[in-house]
Design goal:
Number of helices: 11
Largest sheet: 8 strands, parallel, barrel
Mean pLDDT: 95
Number of strands: 12
Number of domains: 1
CATH class: Alpha Beta
CATH topology: TIM Barrel
Strand content: 15-25%
Radius of gyration: 17 Å
Strand order of the largest sheet: 1-2-3-4-5-8-9-12
Shape: globular
Distance between the termini: 8 Å
CATH architecture: Alpha-Beta Barrel
Structural class: alpha/beta
Order of helices and strands: EHHEHEHHEHEEEHEHHEEEHEH
């Protein structure tokens, strides 16, 4: 049985910034069941809740910078609870906060605190990985250390299958590793191999001269074994899969890429 499919709205961030209503209408028309937020673009929680209800889009989750949640956990979590989000997600951490970093212990404590706040509002905190959590510390992946040190009652996974692959893991097997703790799985495809331009593509690193190339692709148009990942997501007990493409490619616009991903999944019966 196919799972519902959401779009991570960072994928179409420029369109969201121009006209959120029009952007969400287009997402709905592509056949997405829900959305994952990455910013509210000046709109109130009540406005967004009403718009999603009008369009029949489930506001399943939201990516929120960890420092914003630490600064005002109650305010941030309550905002997304009002929208109707079931999950709130740590999307990325700076180098000092990563496994092995000088502030990693603090990050663990911060996520426990945010997880407690989320629970009070009937929500669940998730952690969205990149490839840098697949460094080994005392023989264990940094990502596994995060999930060991923060209990499942306070933190579940949002495994980004592209970054798991880039990090050297079989993404399907890694999703299955967290069966029962993997409510949302990120579907992301790519072409090329690990290179120095990867983080430029997600807007973090500055442009540099490149000796090799890496690019994000619409789901089904890159290196990933998407049918295998979908099967693993179902088997792991996921409730949602979320399409994300940090930058457009193949000469297409972000909206065209989002539609290509959704159309491909429809061909698979999703």
């Amino acid at each position: 049985m196919a799972l519902p499919v959401a779009l991570q709205l960072y994928s179409i961030r420029d369109e969201m910034a121009k006209d959120m209503r029009e952007a969400l209408i287009k997402v709905m028309s592509m056949g997405y069941d829900g959305v994952e937020f990455a910013g509210l673009y000046g709109h109130s929680a009540s406005e967004i809740k009403a718009l999603c209800a009008e369009l029949g889009l489930n506001p399943i989750s939201a990516h929120v910078p960890i420092d914003d949640m630490v600064k005002d956990p109650e305010g941030v979590v309550s905002t997304y609870a009002e929208i109707g989000c079931k999950y709130i997600v740590v999307p990325y951490v700076i180098e000092e906060r990563r496994p092995g970093g000088s502030k990693f212990d603090q990050t663990i404590e911060d996520m426990k605190m945010i997880g407690e706040s989320a629970k009070k509002h009937g929500m669940t905190l998730l952690y969205h990985n990149h490839d840098f959590e697949f460094v080994k510390i005392d023989g264990k992946y940094g990502l596994d250390l995060i999930y060991e040190r923060v209990p499942a009652s306070l933190l579940e996974t949002e495994i980004d299958t592209c970054w798991a692959n880039v990090g050297g893991e079989n993404p399907s097997k890694y999703v299955l590793k967290y069966t029962g703790r993997a409510p949302v799985v990120h579907l992301k495809d790519f072409a090329g191999s690990k290179s120095e331009n990867m983080y430029e593509l997600i807007g973090i690193d500055k442009k540099v001269e490149h000796t090799n190339t890496f690019e994000f692709r619409p789901v089904g148009f890159g290196n990933q074994n998407i049918p295998d990942i979908l099967a693993a997501s179902e088997k792991a007990g996921a409730g949602w899969v979320v399409v994300e493409q940090d930058q457009p490619s193949m000469g297409k616009t972000p909206l065209e890429c989002a539609k290509m991903s959704r159309d491909y999944l429809k061909l698979l019966g999703w």
